[in-house]
Design brief:
With 639 residues, this protein is α+β, with helices and mostly antiparallel strands. The protein has 21 helices and 22 strands. The chain has a nine-stranded mixed β-sheet with strand order 1-6-5-4-7-3-2-8-9, with helices on one face. Strands 10-11-14-12-13 form a five-stranded mixed β-sheet, sandwiched between helices. It has a five-stranded mixed β-sheet with strand order 15-17-16-19-18. A hairpin with a 4-residue loop joins strand 5 (152-157) and strand 6 (162-168). The longest helix is centred in the middle third of the chain and has 24 residues, at 356-379. It binds adenosine-5'-diphosphate.
């Protein structure tokens, strides 16, 4: 028997694993199964690619069995994981299980910050390999026979200083007849809890359900007599993984039903998905993605601590379902799977976030999803409306957050409009525009009903200029950040500024050239109102957008909107600057005509006050002093 010292890094890793992963011990089984699966992959490849291995009859499988000691003595209970894969000879055992040959692990060790070490959950997300088995075992034996070789080797270690390697006789009952590896874990006190059928099945289903080879679990099934004593017991073996990673099968062999079934299990949703996209990328990077859009938005979509919906697999092995970085936040409603061939299994979360491979997959996935949404919006209006009702808002967040995909996103978002029923897009708006119209007009701030009733729309309606009704709170933040709209792919084509009708600067196109005489004529009245209102307003102006109503308020083009200021205040923001409205008045209105001829200071003050307050009310805003408004109104009525 040859005794060996562990390479110092192995000792370090072992120490780290045992002391920081204890709350995630169960991953040991995932790691062993993943190694077994790799070993089967390797041999499978050789049997088709290499003459020397072609004669090997090979039915790849992974077998798990356990023995539970009745008295729970440490070291007396075992879990055994066995495969008939490529196997290891003496040299392989030394190199693979005595050193850290894998550069990934070394980087992992170096990068693991002190903080991450404390957070065992973080590390637990990612594989740390074979050594994790020492979290549950005091001693491990690995018995292995390499394919196309005759000797059988046994590696033994207590996971402390080093390990022994010995050759087993051909007759040794511990030996292996066929090629492959048997890993025997002599469970520690903490490990014995895993030596039962339910734990093992549960862990395999959770982490390794989609491993491509069958995983069998052997267990004893007891029959009891009426006194509760074991009458007889039979050895049973069940296949415990589903094996078919659906997303790895080709689209042509999958039916819609298969996708829908799979979704229900993946998304924990009894509804059918609204849409799904299955993609296989080959070439420089190999990966598969399968994404679903739930019919109803996830209940936690607007919670800051929403649960991400995309799971990361590496070669069918589950890595994490708790990484928000796998999708941009505005696509947080997407459910699905990313399965990469190129990522290392043992990669920490920090490394994952800076990982170029994953970044590329993510970027390509976003592009794919957005183009798929586009197709859906063009080909299936009904479905797209369902989509919009659920996800218009997150898409608008995307407009704000994801500059690189802005062009695609601006084609997806939808709005209500003064010109058509239901939803409409920027592109559709532009297609309805009059040939000389320069801007796209919209109104924000308030619910749909208030907005549709706003006096600000009068002149646009009279001129038959369409205005988009933006009744979602988020519009106030997102739409101004867009500035303009240009149809995609037409970098030379016309670009249209987006103008809020409740802003100064949106009335230039209303056509009525500023009538110098009208201005002059209205000047004295305007001065009267200005004087009466004092610092309640930023300015008083003669309006070009009013037809029937006597007054309206607008915001300065460069100020945030009044609605937004009220919203911020309601959200508890203390330092919201007071935004004063600009009052616009309709010079042709009888009230204004009347004001022209009155010099009664008290009456002027009441009329000016009511003109302002009613304009605020129509916009759905709250009056600072409603009692005062009512008083003024009553005084005027009494007159
Ligand atoms: P990883 O699997 O990430 O490389 P591990 O520490 O789990 O890291 O395993 C180290 C190496 O040991 C593997 O790369 C492989 O060469 C070898 N090995 C482990 N388990 C087996 C097995 N069941 N069959 C063949 N080789 C194995």
């Amino acid at each position: 028997m040859a005794q060996h010292q562990f390479q110092t890094e192995v000792s370090k890793l072992l120490h780290l694993i045992i002391h920081s992963l204890y709350s995630n011990r169960e991953i040991f089984l995932r790691e062993l199964v993943s190694n077994a699966s790799d070993a089967l992959d390797k041999l499978k490849y050789l049997t088709v690619a290499d003459e020397a291995y072609k004669s090997i009859s090979f039915e790849p499988r992974i077998d798990i069995s356990f023995h539970k000691d009745a008295d729970n003595r440490p070291g007396a209970s075992t879990i055994i994981v066995s495969d008939n894969g490529i196997g290891m000879n003496e040299k392989d055992l030394e190199e693979s299980l005595g050193t850290i040959a894998r550069s990934g692990t070394r980087v992992f060790l170096e990068k693991l910050s002190e903080e991450a070490k404390k957070d065992s959950n973080l590390i637990g997300q990612f594989g740390v390999g074979f050594y994790s088995a020492f979290m549950v075992a005091d001693r491990i034996e690995v018995i292995s026979r390499k394919a196309a070789e005759n000797s059988v080797w046994k590696w033994t270690s207590d996971g402390k200083e080093g390990y022994d390697i010995e050759a087993l006789d051909a007759e040794d009952p511990a030996g292996r007849e066929s090629q492959g590896t048997t890993v025997i874990l002599y469970l520690s006190e903490e490990g014995t809890e895993y030596a039962n059928r339910w734990s093992i099945e549960d862990i395999i289903k959770r982490y390794s359900n989609h491993v491509a080879f069958p995983i069998y679990l052997s267990y004893e099934e007891n029959e009891y007599d009426d006194k509760g004593k074991v009458k007889s017991s039979t050895q049973k073996t069940d296949k415990i993984n589903s094996g078919a990673a659906l997303w790895r099968r080709s689209k042509s062999e999958l039916k819609d039903e298969d996708y829908k079934e799979f979704y229900k299990q993946l998304g924990h949703d009894s509804d059918e998905p609204l849409h799904f996209v299955h993609t296989r990328a080959e070439g420089a990077q190999e990966y598969i993605t399968l994404f679903y859009v739930p019919r109803k938005a996830p209940f936690d979509m607007y919670h800051a601590d929403y649960k991400p919906g995309v799971k990361l697999y590496v070669k069918r092995i589950f890595i994490t379902d708790d990484d928000k970085e796998l999708m941009p936040t505005y696509l947080r409603f997407v459910r699905g799977i990313i399965d990469s061939e190129d990522l290392p299994l043992n990669v920490s979360r920090e490394i994952l976030q800076q990982n170029r491979i994953l970044m590329n997959i993510k970027n390509a996935s976003v592009k794919k999803l957005l183009s798929e949404f586009k197709t859906l919006s063009e080909n299936n209006r009904e479905k797209w409306e369902e989509f919009i009702v659920q996800y218009n808002r997150p898409l608008k967040e995307g407009l704000y957050q994801d500059y690189s995909n802005r062009e695609a996103l601006q084609e997806l978002v939808r709005f209500k409009s003064t010109a058509v029923e239901g939803w409409t897009s920027f592109a559709e708006y532009v297609s309805r525009m009059k040939s000389d119209q320069k801007n796209i007009y919209y109104i924000t701030g308030g619910d749909e009903k208030t907005l549709r009733a706003s006096p600000l729309l009068e002149a646009y309606r009279a001129k038959e200029i369409e205005v988009l009704i933006m009744d979602d709170e988020i519009d106030d933040i997102v739409i101004p950040s867009l500035f303009s709209y240009r149809q995609p792919g037409k970098s030379e084509g016309p670009s249209f500024d987006l103008k809020a009708v409740n802003r100064t600067g949106a009335d230039e196109e209303l056509g009525e050239k500023k009538d110098k005489d009208a201005e002059k004529e209205a000047k004295p009245v305007i001065e009267k109102i200005k004087k009466a209102l004092g610092d309640r307003v930023k300015d008083v102006k003669l309006s070009r957008r009013l037809h029937d109503s006597p007054s309206c308020i607008v915001a300065d083009e460069n100020d945030p909107s009044i609605q937004m200021a009220q919203m911020l205040k309601a959200m508890g923001q203390a330092e919201v600057p007071e935004i004063k409205p600009i009052l616009e008045v309709n010079g042709d209105h009888p009230i204004l005509q009347h004001l022209k001829n009155t010099e009664d200071e008290e009456e002027i003050a009441d009329v000016a006050g009511v003109l302002l307050d009613q304009a605020l009310l129509v916009e759905g805003l709250k009056l600072k002093d409603p009692a005062d408004f009512v008083k003024k109104l009553n005084r005027l009525l009494a007159r």
